[in-house]
Amino acid sequence: MLQIDVISIFPEYLSPLKLSLLGKAQDKGLVSINIHDLRDQTNDVHKSVDDTPYGGGAGMVMTAEPWAAAIDQITNDQDEVDLIILTPAGEKFNQKMAETFANKSHLIFACGRYEGIDARVGEYYAGKSNFKIHQVSIGDYVLGGGEVAAMVIIEATTRLIPGVLGNPDSLKEESHSITGANDEVLVEYPNYTKPASWRGLEVPEVLLSGNHGEIAKWRKAQAERRTQQLNKE
Ligand code: SAM
Fold it and tell me: Which of 61, 118, 150, 231 has its CB surrounded by the most CB atoms within 10 Å?
């Protein structure tokens, strides 16, 4: 079972993780998701988790100690842990990364706020032999916090775990997983369902033909065309 822990100052932001396929996956025992309030690791009356940045500048930086206290409470020295620090300055998340994370046993997501987390948190855990650190961004833009980014990664990762999707065949021909003639990664072909004629628009003839070879050929060509189009933009 994949264990996922998410640390945030807004635990309620992560409540959608209980819904839909992910909620069912937890009920089935395929994945366990625990949300932790970073402020539970503070000792002062204001439950402060931030301070002014060394070197000056606008905004506040999240202090290292509450993060370390939260991470230490969740882990032990035997645990193989992948610590995912959400940051717009990280490596860009993609399907390949989701596949890697889906094969791990314990993922911890650190959701930053303010100007981010004191850089020594990542440095400290990188020095521990049972930890692997991933600084991950979900795209070239800046969010207010890491919670939405954590949910994106968790959803893309957990749907790859066997048993999470009702029909595992759904994973076979998806965008970013299918490859073209030269092994390039493609997006999916367009999909259609009933009725065959809708508001004057017809489903492509080949999809109604029952000829599986022709359908597969058409879909591959469409996937290649769409991918080329995207790469041009
Ligand atoms: N000062 C930071 C910078 O310029 O790189 C931005 C901090 S942002 C306002 C606050 C938090 O939101 C970050 O610590 C991170 O956890 C999260 N965040 C913002 N954009 C993100 C992105 N594109 N991917 C992942 N996390 C992001």
Answer: 150
